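Quick one: structure for this chain?
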Amino acid sequence: MAVHQSSEELDSGDEDGGAVFLDREDIEDEFLVDEEDLPDVDDEHDGDHATESDPYQEESSLERDDSIHAFTGHSDSVYSVACSPTDSDLVATGGGDDTVYIWRVGDSEAPLELKGHTDSIGSLAFSNDGVLLASGGLDGVVNIWESSSGDLKQKLEGPGDAIEWVKWHPRGHIVLAGSEDFTTWMWNADNASCMTVLAGHNRSVTCGGFTPDGKTICTGSADASLRVWNPRSGECIHVVQGHPYHTEGLACLAFDFESNVTISGSIDSSVCIVNIRTGKVAGALHGHSKSVECVGLAYGFPLAATGSMDGKLIIWDLQTLSPRSTCEHEDGIVKLIWSSSSSYIFTGCIDGKIRVWDSRTGRCEKIFHGHEDSILDISASWGDKFILSGSDDKTVRAFEVALV
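Got it. Here's what it folds into:
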């Protein structure tokens, strides 16, 4: 509405200190305004709302993306990410679209698309020579692929339910897989022969693997037990269950590099250390209030790290079994990785961020942004060149560790 007033009318209004009145002929046009559409008095001073005259505030609200490469080939959540142990740029990813992709960081070439599962891919692992890739699906099948061509080499069947995890022997093409049918299967991936079936748990086999020396297998289960096996005979050497071990199911486990100790995390929020040779509980770590989703042991130092849905990464001194540092996150931690070349620990979080922590000080050195939803898995490339993360936002993102 345009309003014009003469200087005399303005002056008289100011001098009288009263209202200024307009004659009808001074009005050029009229508009009807609904009082509900009028802003509150404080709205124009509200700093939380960006306006056209405040471009900097609009820019600051945009999503930040620190990734150097975003892979968008998946059409559903990405549950598993694996990096080649011999090629720092080669990555395999799998998810809810029942598809595995093999691709290269920074490469615009079309990825290798691997079709062979009829349900979601929950686990991926490269053989230690980088030649083969194993994929475990909720369809109960483990497929073995040539990593260079994407050709299907073997289809390993037998488990009666979903595959929880797949792991390779440290020095051969022997693959191990834990299943929801309470069993663990071991195959020769070169000829598809089943070498043994480890049976003994009475609930899903949720975690496990070969010890670093390849001489022993440990498996953890939702039945709250840890079993130690001889891979040659299939014999169960030790069963660790009951007090002072976990009271609820195991979610994760890891080994020391000398193959003497395993550390396990449970949904009961506890962490236990077991001597693999004796089958005895060597210690317990108490500090979390929710499920412990990931554990790891430092190379060459008596340190452990545990990540939980309580949002805490705790770095432990194993000589005193006491916390060295507690590192807070905004939400639950789903995966942690000890760097192979530095003192850093990488964590993937439900808040969609990757954090880099200095294990010596407990300080957060870097936060990588980019995902729009929860991170479900992370993996470090050979030589820790990149950290890669798969997310509920259907993308995989690569972050350059050198930027830390």
